[in-house]
Amino acid sequence: MEEGGQMTTVKCSSQIIEESIAVLREGMVRSEERVILWLGRDQPNAYRISEIYEPEQLTSVDYFRIPPESMRALMSHLRKNRLKIIAQLHTHPGRAFHSLADDRWAIIRHVGALSLVLPYFAANTTPKNFLDEAMTYELSPENEWLHVNNQRIEVC
Ligand SMILES: [Zn+2]
């Protein structure tokens, strides 16, 4: 069990998960990482994911970058629709873990934010095994990405 985390439940429909896998796999054909964001609104003790956001991004086999104009477009989208970034999801060419580059280049920076990493460009990920495949990290108050189990994510 994690300690000191916010333990806020993240509620996500299976349709969002299915769409997420499909979008992340677009990188697979080019052997490139891909990053997307789960956006949502606060609910009492829970976040409900309402949409997937795919930022303009520069990608390669082992990294992604979000250029400044893409960050601005994202921020404006969040303001306009009063949404918040709940989680960041990205693929890796190999096994799933939070690399130093991932720590450094994370799009989200608030305590309790989640960062999910999927292995092998999500080649083997299905809505059914999604929670087993994803390695999930949460940003601690000490600004560290700590591995957490996926019980916080509720597929409904
Ligand atoms: Zn990574």
Question: How would you sum up this structure, described in words?
Answer:
The chain is an alpha/beta fold and 156 residues long. The protein has one domain: Cytidine Deaminase, domain 2. It contains 4 helices and 10 strands; from the N terminus they run βαββββαβαβαβββ. The strands form 2 sheets. An 8-stranded mixed β-sheet has the order 9-8-7-6-2-3-1-10. A two-stranded antiparallel sheet has the order 4-5. A hairpin with a 5-residue loop joins strand 8 and strand 9. It is globular and about 40 Å long. The N terminus is likely disordered. Zinc ion (ZN) binds next to loops. Zinc ion binds next to loops.
In short:
This protein has 156 residues and is of the alpha/beta class.
Helices and strands in order, then pairings?
Blueprint: E1 9-12, H1 14-25, E2 35-43, E3 46-53, E4 58-60, E5 63-65, H2 68-81, E6 84-91, H3 100-105, E7 114-118, H4 130-133, E8 135-139, E9 145-148, E10 153-155
Parallel strand pairs: 1-3, 1-10, 6-7
Antiparallel strand pairs: 2-3, 2-6, 4-5, 7-8, 8-9
Bound molecules: zinc ion (ZN).
Zinc ion is lined by residues 90, 92, 99, 102, 117.
